[in-house]
Amino acid sequence: MRKPVIAGNWKMYKLLGEAVDTALALKPLVANANHCEVLIAPVFVHLKTIADRLEGSNIKVAAQNCSTETKHSAHTGEVGADMIKDVGCSYVIIGHSERRQFYGETDESVNKKTKAALQFSLTTIVCVGEMLAERESGNAETVVKTQLVGALDGLTVSDMERIIIAYEPVWAIGTGQTATPGQAQEMHGFIRQTLAEMQGEEAAEKTRILYGGSVKAENIKDLMKEADIDGALVGGASLEAESFAKIVNYR
Ligand code: PGA
């Protein structure tokens, strides 16, 4: 009943020409993937071009961030959620661990950005995940719960229809060290239980929870067998059309 989502996070990679080439190469390779939603998230300055080139296809476009601000105003360097929507995107990724680690993103700013995105009807992929030291000290669940509670503060059950959670253990991102399906399932189950406490069973059952961290063609199948894993947020392996298509077509 939860439609899987396979999302490619292109991070700060590719010039415009390469981004267009990859997007166009991906199109036929995933054209028959009706079992899941397929998304790619290029950098801001490529969004409009990529969205235009993918119009009418089954690949949707996501931004990698948005402003906390919702009014057109004096905020140099920021991009509003309505602007993202306006250029043809329907999704946004908020609170990726790289933004938390390197750009001062906090649970509070993640919450504000999530609300800004929802105000303009963007489906919002909220990222959570613990660092290695937090896992090793037995605090992974506490950290993830704090992030969830902070990110979703003040949201209603109907807001949850546009929320997707991405669990990305920081120690698994870009390291080649994937969480085992069992480790991922354990945390996904915990996330769903936490969502049920916050928003009720029904909303929790409907919410897609994606796994991210060194997802590849070789491990997607086993991850997707787990009951609470509803898709993947893919970095490195999404940069080439062929490898990302293999992940999309995992079945
Ligand atoms: P990775 O990145 O697949 O390269 O580990 C995942 C992410 O950061 O979303």
Walkthrough of the structure:
The two termini are 16 Å apart. The protein is globular and about 45 Å long. It contains 11 helices and 8 strands. Helix 1 links the parallel strand 1 and strand 2 (37-41). The model has no long low-confidence stretch (mean pLDDT 97). Helix 1 (16-29) packs parallel to helix 11 (241-248), helix 5 (107-119) packs across helix 7 and helix 7 (140-151) crosses helix 8 (181-199). The protein has 251 residues and is of the alpha/beta class. It has an 8-stranded parallel barrel with strand order 1-2-3-4-5-6-7-8, surrounded by 5 helices. The protein binds 2-phosphoglycolic acid. 2-phosphoglycolic acid binds next to strand 8. The site of 2-phosphoglycolic acid has 13 residues, from strand 8.
Through-space gap between termini: 16 Å
Tell me the total number of β-strands.
8
Shape: globular
Structural class of the secondary elements? alpha/beta
- Alpha-carbon Rg, integer: 17 Å
Please give the order of strands in the largest beta sheet.
1-2-3-4-5-6-7-8
Mean pLDDT score? 97
Percent helix range: 40-55%
**Bound compounds:** 2-phosphoglycolic acid
Low-confidence stretches: none
Number of helices: 11
Order of helices and strands: EHEHEHEHHEHHEHHEHEH
Characterize the largest beta sheet: strand count, sense, and whether it forms a barrel: 8 strands, parallel, barrel
Strand percentage, roughly? 15-25%
